[in-house]
Amino acid sequence: MLFALTAVMHCVLPPFYFRLIGRQMLDIGYYSLPVVGMTTLFSGMVLALQSYSGFARFSAESAIATVVVLSMTRELAPVLAGLMVAGRVGAAIAAEIGTMRVTEQIDALTTLSTNPFKYLVVPRILAGTLMLPLLVLTGDIIGVFGGYIVAVYQLGFNPGTYIKNTAEYLEFIDVVSGLVKAAVFGFLISLMGCYHGYQSRGGAQGVGAATTNAVVSASILILIFNYVITGLFFER
Amino acid sequence: MSQTPKIRVRGLKKSFGPKTVLNGVDLDIESGESLVVIGGSGSGKSVLLKCILGIIQADAGSIQIDGEETLGLRGRERERVMRKFGMLFQGGALFDSLKVWENVAFGLIQGRGTAKDEARRIALEKLAQVGLGEAVSTLSPAELSGGMQKRVALARAIATEPEIIFFDEPTTGLDPIMADVINDLIVACVKELGATALTITHDMASARKIANKVAMIYEGRIIWHGPVERIDASGNDHVDQFIHGRADGPIQMQVTRP
């Protein structure tokens, strides 16, 4: 908790290492694209298939497009992307910072008059918080596209009708709530990675434990916060 | 003594849980002096060093640097005091994501805002000073041998021309010849900078070479402190046992005997 406050404080106070923030954004954002893309593509596809087989029982096949786009933007894209990125990026952050901790590189930063929070933690947290919404937005589009492919090419829907149905019931708030979730998840992933890495002790085993803890705690927090944010947005 | 010591430590205490590591350390280091602290493994040498650097927060006592109390300094104030320091870490602690020259130039670029070209020039100069050529400067630290890493770390420690340099077991893990090369480099660098040096080691050959003065730490206290020439006639059984490396004596290692 104290760690989170210190980290946030350093996020808003200068000096900033823009080059490092840029590199982390590339690392966390761009290089996670394939993983997030694959995840959301197949989720969109399977969603179309599942809802078709379900809705066909009471002839509500036309609702498939709406089901796909709403589930993707509100829930699946942020949560699945969050979990995948937690595995990919959260683990990498914890392992890197943990190794720097046990090999005294973090102490070395301090002796070279560089604040490790500003140099290591802030760029990762900023990059995580900024890049995950972009990833999720991309994931939304890819997921809807996955649903479209299955509906049109496999289930024989009319392309025009499908797109019209997709757009018809989609509201701005659906997308925004997903992106807000993504930003919170991105923050949590990098925070957990940094925190567990920073606290790691005792050589290779310590770094391994830190990596596991980072991924597990980030995943659980994502699921908890997913519920909380959904409640905030859609509970009347 | 009228002159304020460069570093004055008084009544320094530090415990980790129930284990007391430093139990009232008193130590003065005069400006321009090279003090070597000797002591067995687990005697609190490293913790003492890190407390003075502020990497570990001491529980009680006083640490004055140039007469200024530094215990409890934080943030910007801490960074300002850190600018006086250079430190050579036991494992080198080179940043493996950066090239060799970027490691050496790190304190100049990040800590002091030196321009990149200028910092690179100084880094190459310092690398030459520790006997490493320009070809090495673009390698990554992982590609270097242990001795070379130690020399890069030394170049990084002296790059900002600090007033005080700390050496944490500079010769550990090196062969005797490379160890002596490092000792020579340390002596040369400290002399050239006119810096105050504090070294912790359990390598007596290294201690004799680097030190003007020697202090021995045992059970969290300084039990002997004197010029290096007098170490063989210290009149202290603990020191005698340590410098001659005898298993029997007043210092009993925690070894379970069958």
From TrEMBL, chain B:
Q: Name one GO biological process term.
A: carbohydrate metabolic process
Is the keyword ATP-binding assigned to this protein? yes
Transmembrane stretches in the record are none
Q: Does the keyword Transport apply?
A: yes
**Keywords, alphabetical:** ATP-binding, Nucleotide-binding, Transport
Q: InterPro entries in the record, alphabetically? A: AAA+_ATPase, ABC_transporter-like_ATP-bd, ABC_transporter-like_CS, Glyco_hydro_18_chit_AS, P-loop_NTPase
Q: Name one Pfam family in it.
A: ABC_tran
A single Gene Ontology MF term assigned here is:
ATP binding
Q: Which residues form the ABC transporter domain?
A: 7-244
Which Gene3D superfamilies did the record assign?
P-loop containing nucleotide triphosphate hydrolases (3.40.50.300)
Q: Which domain of life is it from?
A: Bacteria
By what name is this protein known?
ABC transporter ATP-binding protein
Its source organism is Oceanibaculum pacificum
